[in-house]
Amino acid sequence: MEPTYRFKILSPRRRFLDDDVVSIVAPGEAGYFGVLANHAPLVSTMGSGEVTVRFADGSEKRFRIDGGIFRVARNSAVLLSENVEEIGVE
Description:
By secondary structure, the chain is mainly β. Helices cover 0% and strands 70% of the residues. The protein contains no helices and 8 strands. The protein has strands at residues 5-10, 15-21, 23-28, 31-36, 42-54, 60-73, 76-80, 84-89. Strands 1, 2, 3, 4, 5, 6, 7 and 8 form an 8-stranded mixed beta sheet that branches. Strand 6 and strand 7 form a beta hairpin.
């Protein structure tokens, strides 16, 4: 089983995700980046685009964001964005 970490996607209106995940691919201001378990600490401003989240069972969820802030620390990650929309589950 692949290692997991906690990931939250939050907006001022609601919590879109609060779950253990295997990986994230997200649109940073300078381009897309990926995060796996035990990632080094990171803070990034976000661009607009799709966030792809993969779970231990192999399923994925996708979200559309319009900017925000992303933080990784102590094997957990948080994405804060004003505008979040869930766009797909695979």
